[in-house]
């Protein structure tokens, strides 16, 4: 049965998951449930659910400039940094002549997801190549590696900055496998206390991209043949961009 004959008969969004009920029409209609996981933190100015921001970066501001009662439409002025919330770093973030988000090959930002589960790591503990090596056989060009520390549970809290971080040697060996896109559920793959950001420079210097501040990576472990999308806004000559990161099982959607 070709995909054009499939019909979404119901869908719902709850607990950062989008559920679809899909019908295959015919004399013997069948139904299947598909799941899409939202890996994105909410951009908000709420003080009750604060966001984590890299020290010194711009904070989010949202101002109503038009409302339905007065102008017959709602319009909001949004001000934020290119690395606010769940976002992606382009090579140009640390590499002067590196690609910007509008020039990057989008086909590299949607692909097979490989979750490296290192949730046993403690605050400010290093993630070494030895921690990642058992997944080496699945690492190759086109695979998007998601580093799961479980640290997204501390989003908006003071200890979010105390996340585990990647060892420089691990970053180099990861690039040797052909992987060029990684994602993490932390502020950075680097130690926030290290101003050199050497892991960034290794990955971005290899022409890679880094998605940061993802949430719910551990939920991707439950997906069969997971696909992840990390698409940025098309911002002219920009070093990074907020993204709406999502994951789903190949063949489901």
UniProtKB/TrEMBL annotation:
<comment type="similarity">
    <text>Belongs to the Cyclase 1 superfamily.</text>
</comment>
<protein>
    <submittedName>
        <fullName>Cyclase</fullName>
    </submittedName>
</protein>
<dbReference type="InterPro" id="IPR007325">
    <property type="entry name" value="KFase/CYL"/>
</dbReference>
<dbReference type="GO" id="GO:0004061">
    <property type="term" value="F:arylformamidase activity"/>
</dbReference>
<dbReference type="InterPro" id="IPR037175">
    <property type="entry name" value="KFase_sf"/>
</dbReference>
<dbReference type="Pfam" id="PF04199">
    <property type="entry name" value="Cyclase"/>
</dbReference>
<dbReference type="GO" id="GO:0019441">
    <property type="term" value="P:L-tryptophan catabolic process to kynurenine"/>
</dbReference>
